[in-house]
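We examine the record.

___
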Amino acid sequence: MGRKSRGTRGKKTMASQGSEANLASGFDVPEEDVLRARFYAILAHLLTRPPSAETLESVRSLEGDETEMGSALGALAAVAAKTSVEAAEEEYNALFVGMAHGELTPYTSYYLAGFLMEKPLAKLRGDMARLGIAAAEEFREPEDHIGILCEMMHGLITGAFGAPADVATQKEFFDVHIRPWATRFFEDLEAAKSAVLYMPVGTVGRVFMAIEAEAFAMGA
C-alpha cells in the first residue's frame, strides 16, 4: 500500500455522504489506494441512506470478472439493473430502519457490546477527535454506523480530513473499529430475509474486508 502522511490534518467535518468527490482532494493518492477508496465510497453510499437514482446508475455500471470480488460486483450490477429507486428505498428501510428498527443493526457497539451507544462508540469518538474528524451536524446516526466508518476510511485514504493518513494510521483505525465486526455484519446482510439488492452488497463488503485485512497484514 505504501502511503505516507503529507502534513498535519486539520479538523474537517465528515459529510456522511460517502462522496467520491473527495478523491479530488488535491493530494497525490496512489492508484491502488484510489481503487480502495472507491470501494469504501460505494459501501458508504449504499449503507448510509437509501440509494439515489445516481447511486443506482453507478452500481449498474460496475463490471465483474472471474475473481471472487468480480463475481460479487457483477451480481450487484445485475440486481441493480432490475431495481427501481422505490424498491431500493423500501428494501433499505426494511433492513436498517423499520417501524422501531430494521432487520439489521449496523453499529459497532451493537455487534461488540450488544447495545447501542456503548464503549466502542466512545473509543471511536476519541479517535475521531485525535484524527481531526467531526461528524456532520445534520446526520443523526451514531458515528459507529458501518456506512459512516466506510466513509471515514475513504477520507483517511484520500486526505479528506487534511492529508492522506499513513498506512499505520489506516491499519490501526481498521483493526480497532472495523475488522472486529464488519465481516459478521456483511455476512448477516448476505443472509438477511429482506435483502435482494443488498445481498450482493453484503458479498462485496465481506470480500472487500478480507482483502483489506490481508493487505494490511502483508504491509505490517
Notes: The first strand starts at residue 12 and ends at 14. The chain has one domain: 12-17+28-219.
